[in-house]
Structures are given as structure tokens and as C-alpha cells.
Amino acid sequence: MLVAAAICPCPPLLVPEVAAGAAPELDGLRAAALDAVGVLAAARPDRLVVLGPAEQAGRGPHPQGAIGSFRGFGVDLDVALGAPGTTSERRLPPSLSVGAWLLSRTDWADAPVEGLGVGEPLTRDRCLPVGREISASAPRVALLVMGDGSARRTVKAPGYFDERAEAFDAEAARALGAADTAALTALDEELAFDLQASGRACWQVLAGAAEGADLRGTLLREEAPYGVGYFVAAWS
């Protein structure tokens, strides 16, 4: 059963070494994300699953101890997913690498940690059963859910400006802050794709996992410093 969830954005810039001189711009977002992860440890789960959007090569399960790297972003920095565990030749996708970095900066519990790379095009009809399966996998399950909102908030955003982006992000932020699983389930897949909202599928996996869990949510941070919607929320 799902007992806690932390929802965090996944830009590699969240890692100060990657952001370099721009790191202070995300200090508030970074601090909020670490606070959210702290909620997971306090819930004392039996199992933690880190969800994050992934390209084809990074999709599917990643075992505890799997390695992620930020070398592709010009930084000599590797991270491991949780405590040392099963070795894996597969590298974590960037979103799970950011999640592993967040866990490494918190006083994490001794629960086993696993990762799951989720394809951004995954339909809600497939996301929800994945979430239900994760929730049923242990008596006390926690989720660290990585993913961004729209990438089209301004003309300088990665996807350029789209007038629909702000309203989409506002509804996503409200639903995440309220632990509103029905609203997350109802997020428009095609619109999310158009707006390059990488978190949509992961949020709908979360919605499936949280069915019947009666969790309450708190929105800890909402901003769009680079024209991309970033949200931090905690459910417990």
C-alpha cells in the first residue's frame, strides 16, 4: 500500500555541480525537493520506488545500486540508486539520476530502493495498472516521482511559447498539491505531449498507486524559471 510520495522536478540543473554558476537560481526548488524526500523517510516504507521519464534505452526497472552519471552534462559526477546493491550494466536515465542524487543528500531509511524508467508516451490506461501493481508490492510503499510540467511557458522555453501551457501547469500543480488522483488521471495526454510535459505519465502512475490510500498532499514549491513548469509536492 502506498504510504507516502514525493513529487519533484528532474532537470539536471537541480544538481549544483551541473548548474555551476546558475546553481543559486534553483536553491529554493532544491531545498523544497530535499524536504519532500524527507517525508518519504519519515513514513518508514518497506520499499521505495523512484519513477522518472525515460527514453527507450532507460525504460523499465533499475535495481538498487544502479549507477547514473552526469558526465554527459560536462560534470565528473556519478551517483548510485540507494545503497550498494545488485550491479547493473544499464545506466540510469537522467531523471532517475537526479532522483538518486536527491536520495544521496537526505537521511534515507534502510528500505530497498528501485527505479522505474517510464516512457513519456505511456497512456493513462497503462499507467494506472502499473501504479496499482507497485502499491500492492509491499505493505508500506513510498514513491519518489520525478517529472516536469510544460516546457512551453515562454518564448525562451525549450519548446517555445504555447498559450495553453500556463493553464495546464496550474491544474497539474493544484492536483499534485491536493493529492487529487482523479484530476491527475484526467490530465490530457495529447495536450501534455504537445506541451512537452515530461511528468504526465509518472504522475498518472502515481495516481494509480494512490487509489484508496487516502493520502493528503502539500504543494511545497511551484515555479518556471526557464519556461518549464517545476513542482514539488509531498503526500502522506
Structure, described:
- With 236 residues, the protein is of the alpha/beta class.
- It has a single domain (2-235), classed as Protocatechuate 4,5-dioxygenase, Chain B, CATH 3.40.830.
- The chain contains eight helices and nine strands.
- It has helices spanning 16-19, 27-42, 94-104, 124-135, 165-178, 181-185, 189-194, 200-209, and strands at residues 2-8, 47-54, 60-62, 67-69, 78-80, 113-119, 141-146, 217-223, 230-235.
- The strands form two sheets. Strands 3-6-2-7-1-9-8 form a seven-stranded mixed sheet, sandwiched between helices. A two-stranded antiparallel sheet has the order 4-5.
- A hairpin with an 8-residue loop joins strand 4 and strand 5.
- Helix 4 crosses helix 8 (200-209).
- It is globular.
- The two termini are 12 Å apart.
- The model has no long low-confidence stretch (mean pLDDT 95).
Structure, briefly:
The chain has 236 residues and is of the alpha/beta class. The chain is 33% helix and 21% strand.
Fill in the CATH topology.
Answer: Protocatechuate 4,5-dioxygenase, Chain B
The tally of structural domains comes to 1
- As residue ranges, the low-confidence spans are none
Strand content: 15-25%
Question: What are the defining features of this structure?
Answer:
236 residues; alpha/beta; Protocatechuate 4,5-dioxygenase, Chain B; seven-stranded mixed sheet; two-stranded antiparallel sheet; 8 helices
